[in-house]
Design brief:
Elements (H helix, E strand, L loop, with lengths): L2 E5 L2 E4 L4 E8 L6 E8 L6 E7 L6 E3 L7 E6 L4 E6 L8 E9 L7 H9 L6 E2 L3 E6 L1
Parallel strand pairs: 2-11
Antiparallel strand pairs: 1-3, 3-8, 4-5, 4-9, 5-6, 7-8, 9-10, 9-11
Amino acid sequence: QVQLVETGGGAVQAGGSLRLSCAASGYTFSNYCMGWFRQAPGEEREGVASIYTGGVYATYYVRSVKGRFTISQDNAKKTLHLQMNSLKPEDTAMYYCATYSLRGSGYSGSWCHARLASQPTGISWGQGTQVTVSS
């Protein structure tokens, strides 16, 4: 059974940094699409960054976080990270980790991002961690 546990959220001032972690268990952690999503009150859940864990670690970022956020994986610890720098009040949201098993190989980060955003059958989600950025 896939389990994802997010940690690292908190309250920071604008311009600050946070590092989110998503500890995964119950699967091999290889050849998956994994990503970070966020949802602010009254808003729809949106994808923030995604990574293809099979081989080249292809990544994708939405425009609003590109250059500020970095998604990475630690295969030995089966952990996904999201380093968030230069945080803005509009980054305030509940952040969720997601994973989706793949067959085959050679996927891109953008493909993974779109696939996760479509919320396919079999996608797994963590419980979320709150990020609050004050001005």
